[in-house]
């Protein structure tokens, strides 16, 4: 099993706080495991020299010239003995049906795994690399390349023979070759070339940067990310090249494609392999022993980093040092990195070990969070991906989180999480409740207990209620309000509350809670007594909800003392349950409360409580004089003599004036206004309301010797009485305040009346003329007479069957028609004819307009 170690910091950095390290520690991106089973046995006797990865299987070459086909678990499925010496390269086509192998002794073999066809050739020099056409399975693409001291292209012609073509030579040994679609990339001692097989043109030459490094010790790594993107790693240099189409106008003698280097940067260590991971790169580094950047225990171990390429650099995403077997004896050229394009699997190959790196899944992520005690994040991740996780259970993670919170002493959060974690598991709920009881934290979990369809045993809830009753009355009352009464034994809790009330009988919290318990137990009378005793606001709601009106007939005064408005509204809304007479009887000794009740009753219906109107007069006079006059105005049932007597006794002038006027004694009423109120404006207003000429005479006579009253009359009398009558009666020499202004106002009012009359006259004349013209036009119109019309007298058709004979018809403007002989002689008055039908209703509109003769 490969051990994954994160790169250590310098000793000075390790002195920071452990908590700070935990906060800044990042989760690994990859996880590792050693490829075992058949591979372990192979590498004990032999050493890996190369490996190729396909989605279906793995192909492993060894130093002893053998090739093994393996499944992804490392089990051997096939074995080929190719050569007695080292296998340098294995190449597979995309289908995985054909394999190409080259070895150190110059042997090259290409054959089908499921067919007998193949190619076998021995060269006189070592063949370092080879690559099959990705679509080798197709008959027209039977091509492959080999690389020793030159790069040769083999292809089968139409005669089923192989022909060769030299693509490149003269620059040293070919050390690597990769074929993708129509592009072949290879590396030699000078640099990297790319050849376009479709146009048969070499399109670029990327020179080697680290020329001081031996190419055989630090070989070039090539990897196609896609059909046009090549990643080159050589020494400590990385270049990302993109093959692009050239603009046709710029071609001339140039290749149709060109290469653009989109990113180039230097790395800290030597590159042994490259692979793409989305838009990032996975790099296998070889670290030399004299590196000062690594701790001693990690030196010479290979590193697998994930980096983010940038145009002029890179950003390190993660870095892992790998402990592979015999890593102390390996060099840069001994490591290879292969990847599976179908899955994010990366194979680190060394002579004595093969390690598989893969992206961490959600289970691995949760493992890491739990290891770092990040339980809340682990629970959230498990809930989000519960369909995808295989090794973890959401509830178990939740229980671990709750245990962690309890250990920390965060009891409230632990209790709150129980709702989500424990779900409908009754056993877990009860276990948690007893655990919280053991640690003395029942209060923390009480508000989160299930109380809906899922319920625990009543003993659990009673245990918590008893705990609160001992230490926290308010908390106990809150639970009683929030918990349904069915959760626990109500009688047992009532008994416990009564025991506590013996020690503190006036405790309002306990009394209120006891009333609520009685309500749950449907003992509403007991609850009502407590609510009334406490003057509790819920008393009215209790009465309405449980129809307790029969229980409050003798408690009306208590209800009124508590809240008059609510009590009266309730009584009036439920007259069918508590009669008006019963309420009046109960309130007879409390007249102020009786007045409130009868006043609201009168406001709702002026006639319903008519038999109590006489009593209401004295109640209004005693407790609510402002509403007495409106009551007297609106009531049709109060005795006026009794009301007058009470008002005169109490010297209520305004009310007495109203009653006198209503009883017809307007002169006495006016006299009281003038003598006792001395308010000329009110006297004038009273006279206007009565509209009595004699009353105006009395008002003038009373005011004639009082100059302020005369001024008031002059200002207001003009529209009701001729001002000349008042002016003639003013004594000569009497000084009247503001007389000039009053006379000017009288003249202005008179002028205004004249203008109004003239305006009305003009409008009347104009309307009369317009109507006359309309009538004239209407009467000038003809009236259609045909066979459908009938005589209104004889009810026969108005026209005779034979129109050739002489006949006479009379048609009126009202559209009634008569035969001339059928029109009665009384229809003629002073030479004018009238419709007999309409003349009974009115005269005029039916004057004859047409007489037809023939």
From TrEMBL:
<dbReference type="GO" id="GO:0030897">
    <property type="term" value="C:HOPS complex"/>
</dbReference>
<dbReference type="GO" id="GO:0034058">
    <property type="term" value="P:endosomal vesicle fusion"/>
</dbReference>
<feature type="compositionally biased region" description="Basic and acidic residues">
    <location>
        <begin position="1"/>
        <end position="13"/>
    </location>
</feature>
<dbReference type="GO" id="GO:0008270">
    <property type="term" value="F:zinc ion binding"/>
</dbReference>
<keyword id="KW-0472">Membrane</keyword>
<dbReference type="InterPro" id="IPR057779">
    <property type="entry name" value="Znf_RING_Vps41"/>
</dbReference>
<dbReference type="Pfam" id="PF23411">
    <property type="entry name" value="Beta-prop_Vps41"/>
</dbReference>
<dbReference type="Pfam" id="PF23556">
    <property type="entry name" value="TPR_Vps41"/>
</dbReference>
<dbReference type="GO" id="GO:0005794">
    <property type="term" value="C:Golgi apparatus"/>
</dbReference>
<keyword id="KW-0813">Transport</keyword>
<keyword id="KW-0967">Endosome</keyword>
<feature type="domain" description="RING-type">
    <location>
        <begin position="791"/>
        <end position="839"/>
    </location>
</feature>
<dbReference type="InterPro" id="IPR000547">
    <property type="entry name" value="Clathrin_H-chain/VPS_repeat"/>
</dbReference>
<keyword id="KW-0968">Cytoplasmic vesicle</keyword>
<keyword id="KW-0653">Protein transport</keyword>
<dbReference type="InterPro" id="IPR057780">
    <property type="entry name" value="Beta-prop_Vps41"/>
</dbReference>
<dbReference type="InterPro" id="IPR011990">
    <property type="entry name" value="TPR-like_helical_dom_sf"/>
</dbReference>
<dbReference type="GO" id="GO:0005765">
    <property type="term" value="C:lysosomal membrane"/>
</dbReference>
<feature type="region of interest" description="Disordered">
    <location>
        <begin position="1"/>
        <end position="30"/>
    </location>
</feature>
<dbReference type="GO" id="GO:0031902">
    <property type="term" value="C:late endosome membrane"/>
</dbReference>
<keyword id="KW-0458">Lysosome</keyword>
<dbReference type="InterPro" id="IPR016902">
    <property type="entry name" value="Vps41"/>
</dbReference>
<protein>
    <recommendedName>
        <fullName>Vacuolar protein sorting-associated protein 41 homolog</fullName>
    </recommendedName>
</protein>
<comment type="function">
    <text>Plays a role in vesicle-mediated protein trafficking to lysosomal compartments including the endocytic membrane transport pathways.</text>
</comment>
<dbReference type="Pfam" id="PF23555">
    <property type="entry name" value="zf-RING_Vps41"/>
</dbReference>
<feature type="compositionally biased region" description="Acidic residues">
    <location>
        <begin position="14"/>
        <end position="26"/>
    </location>
</feature>
<dbReference type="InterPro" id="IPR045111">
    <property type="entry name" value="Vps41/Vps8"/>
</dbReference>
<keyword id="KW-0863">Zinc-finger</keyword>
<keyword id="KW-0963">Cytoplasm</keyword>
<dbReference type="GO" id="GO:0030136">
    <property type="term" value="C:clathrin-coated vesicle"/>
</dbReference>
<dbReference type="GO" id="GO:0016236">
    <property type="term" value="P:macroautophagy"/>
</dbReference>
<keyword id="KW-0333">Golgi apparatus</keyword>
<dbReference type="InterPro" id="IPR001841">
    <property type="entry name" value="Znf_RING"/>
</dbReference>
<feature type="repeat" description="CHCR">
    <location>
        <begin position="568"/>
        <end position="712"/>
    </location>
</feature>
<keyword id="KW-0479">Metal-binding</keyword>
<dbReference type="InterPro" id="IPR036322">
    <property type="entry name" value="WD40_repeat_dom_sf"/>
</dbReference>
<dbReference type="GO" id="GO:0006623">
    <property type="term" value="P:protein targeting to vacuole"/>
</dbReference>
<dbReference type="GO" id="GO:0005829">
    <property type="term" value="C:cytosol"/>
</dbReference>
<comment type="similarity">
    <text>Belongs to the VPS41 family.</text>
</comment>
<dbReference type="InterPro" id="IPR015943">
    <property type="entry name" value="WD40/YVTN_repeat-like_dom_sf"/>
</dbReference>
<dbReference type="GO" id="GO:0031901">
    <property type="term" value="C:early endosome membrane"/>
</dbReference>
<keyword id="KW-0862">Zinc</keyword>
């Amino acid at each position: 099993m490969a051990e994954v170690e994160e790169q250590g910091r310098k000793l000075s950095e390790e002195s920071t706080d452990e908590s700070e390290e935990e906060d800044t520690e990042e989760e690994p991106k990859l996880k590792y495991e050693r490829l075992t089973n058949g591979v372990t046995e192979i590498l004990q006797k032999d050493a890996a020299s190369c490996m190729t990865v396909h989605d279906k299987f793995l192909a492993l070459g060894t130093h002893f010239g053998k090739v093994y086909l393996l499944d992804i678990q490392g089990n051997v499925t096939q074995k080929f003995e190719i050569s007695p010496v080292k296998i340098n390269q294995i190449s597979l086509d995309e289908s995985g049906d054909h394999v190409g192998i080259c070895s150190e002794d110059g042997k090259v073999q290409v054959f089908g795994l499921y067919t007998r066809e193949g190619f076998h050739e021995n060269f006189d020099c070592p063949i370092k690399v080879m690559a099959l056409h990705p679509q080798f399975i197709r008959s027209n693409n039977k091509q492959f390349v080999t690389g020793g001291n030159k790069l040769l292209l083999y292809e089968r012609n139409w005669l089923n023979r192989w022909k060769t073509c030299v693509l490149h030579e003269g620059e040293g040994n070919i050390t690597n070759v990769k074929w993708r679609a129509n592009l072949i990339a290879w590396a030699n001692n000078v640099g990297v070339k790319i050849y376009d097989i479709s146009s048969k043109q070499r399109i670029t030459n990327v020179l080697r940067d680290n020329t001081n490094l031996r190419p055989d010790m630090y070989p070039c790594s090539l990897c196609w990310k896609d059909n046009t993107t090549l990643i080159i790693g050589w020494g400590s240099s990385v270049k990302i090249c993109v093959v692009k189409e050239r603009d046709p106008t710029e071609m001339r003698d140039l290749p149709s494609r060109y290469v653009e280097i989109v990113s180039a940067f230097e790395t800290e260590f030597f590159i042994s392999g490259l692979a793409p991971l989305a838009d990032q790169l996975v790099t296998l580094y070889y670290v030399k022993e004299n590196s000062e950047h690594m701790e001693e225990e990690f030196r010479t171990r290979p590193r697998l980093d994930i980096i983010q390429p940038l145009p002029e650099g890179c950003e390190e995403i993660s870095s892992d040092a790998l402990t592979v077997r015999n890593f102390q004896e390996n060099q840069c050229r001994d490591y290879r990195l292969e990847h599976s394009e179908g899955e994010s699997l990366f194979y680190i190959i060394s002579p004595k070990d093969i390690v598989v790196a893969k992206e961490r899944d959600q289970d691995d992520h949760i493992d890491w969070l739990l290891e770092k005690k990040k339980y809340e994040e682990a629970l959230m991740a498990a809930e989000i991906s519960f369909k995808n996780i295989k090794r973890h259970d959401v509830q178990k993670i939740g229980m671990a989180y709750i245990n962690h919170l309890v250990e920390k002493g965060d009891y409230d959060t632990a209790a709150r999480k129980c709702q989500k974690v424990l779900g409908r598991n009754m056993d877990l709920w009860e276990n948690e409740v007893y655990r919280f009881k053991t640690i003395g934290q029942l209060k923390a979990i009480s508000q989160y207990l299930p109380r809906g369809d899922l319920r625990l045993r009543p003993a659990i809830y009673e245990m918590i209620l008893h705990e609160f009753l001992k230490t926290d009355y308010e908390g106990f009352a809150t639970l009683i309000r929030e918990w349904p009464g069915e959760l626990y034994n109500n009688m047992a809790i009532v008994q416990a509350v009564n025991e506590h009330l013996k020690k503190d009988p006036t405790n309002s919290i306990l009394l209120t809670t006891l009333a609520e318990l009685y309500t749950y137990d449907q003992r509403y009378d007991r609850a009502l007594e407590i609510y009334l005793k406490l003057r509790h606001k819920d008393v009215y709601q209790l009465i309405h909800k449980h129809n307790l009106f029969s229980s409050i007939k003798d408690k009306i005064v208590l209800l009124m003392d508590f809240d008059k408005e609510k009590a009266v509204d309730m009584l009036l809304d439920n007259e069918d349950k508590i009669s008006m007479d019963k309420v009046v009887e109960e309130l007879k000794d409390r007249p102020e409360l009786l007045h409130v009740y009868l006043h609201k009753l009168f406001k709702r219906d002026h006639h319903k409580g008519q038999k109590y109107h006489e009593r209401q007069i004295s109640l209004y006079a005693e407790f609510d004089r402002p509403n007495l006059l409106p009551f007297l105005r609106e009531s049709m049932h109060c005795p006026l003599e009794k009301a007058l007597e009470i008002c005169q006794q109490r010297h209520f002038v305004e009310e007495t004036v109203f009653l006198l006027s209503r009883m017809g004694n307007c002169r006495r009423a006016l006299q009281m206004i003038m003598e006792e109120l001395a308010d000329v404006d009110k006297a004038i207003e009273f006279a206007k309301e009565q509209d009595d000429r004699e009353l105006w005479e009395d008002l003038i006579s009373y005011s004639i010797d009082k100059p302020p009253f005369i001024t008031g009359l002059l200002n207001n009398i003009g529209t009701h009485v001729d001002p000349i009558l008042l002016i003639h009666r003013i004594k000569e020499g009497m000084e009247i305040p503001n007389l000039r202004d009053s006379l000017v106002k009288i003249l202005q009012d008179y002028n205004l009346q004249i203008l109004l009359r003239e305006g009305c006259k003009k409008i009347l004349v104009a309307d009369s003329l317009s109507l006359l013209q309309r009538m004239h036009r209407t009467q000038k119109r003809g009236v259609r007479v045909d066979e459908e019309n009938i005589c209104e007298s004889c009810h026969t058709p108005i026209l005779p069957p034979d129109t050739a004979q002489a006949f006479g018809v009379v048609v009126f403007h009202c559209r009634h028609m008569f035969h001339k002989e059928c029109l009665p002689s009384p229809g003629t008055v002073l030479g004018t004819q009238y419709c007999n039908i309409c003349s009974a209703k009115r005269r005029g509109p039916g004057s004859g307009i047409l007489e037809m003769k023939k």
